[in-house]
Design brief:
It is built from five helices and no strands. The chain has 130 residues and is mainly alpha-helical.
């Protein structure tokens, strides 16, 4: 846990070097909200095959806020995928269960954070509301 906290703190310090803490933290908070909104929309939509679209959209929206938003998106995405690996380890043992899906999620996350169109992952038939 100390290692994780240290890594988060170091990445925060490195991300803030070119702007004020206040601006960075504001962008990070807005980016975290964008990630939450994408997650909430994914749960509400409950649409098979839309997972990667919502990953890309949340990361895209957060990264559009600026460096703070991109930082928040990366930290949240990595924490989510790492926690999922831990729970999969307890549920399925060291079988590798879920690794392929986790890699695909991270590809969608990076796609969105890099500014690419999240609609590249949009499944056919997903309601326009999303």
């Amino acid at each position: 846990m100390k290692l994780f906290t240290g890594l988060v703190f170091c990445s925060l310090v490195l991300g803030v070097n070119s702007q004020s803490w206040f601006t960075f933290m504001g962008e990070a908070a807005q980016g975290a909200w964008d990630m939450w909104r994408a997650y909430s929309d994914m749960r509400e939509a409950n649409y098979i095959g839309a997972d990667k679209y919502f990953h890309a959209r949340g990361n895209y929206d957060a990264a559009q806020r600026g460096p703070g938003g991109a930082w928040a998106a990366e930290v949240i995405s990595n924490a989510r995928e790492n926690s999922q690996r831990v729970t999969d380890l307890f549920k399925h043992g060291d079988s590798g269960h879920g690794e392929e899906d986790s890699r695909a999620d991270q590809i969608a996350n990076e796609h969105g954070r890099s500014g690419k169109d999240p609609n590249d992952f949009r499944p056919a038939g997903l309601p326009d509301k999303y």
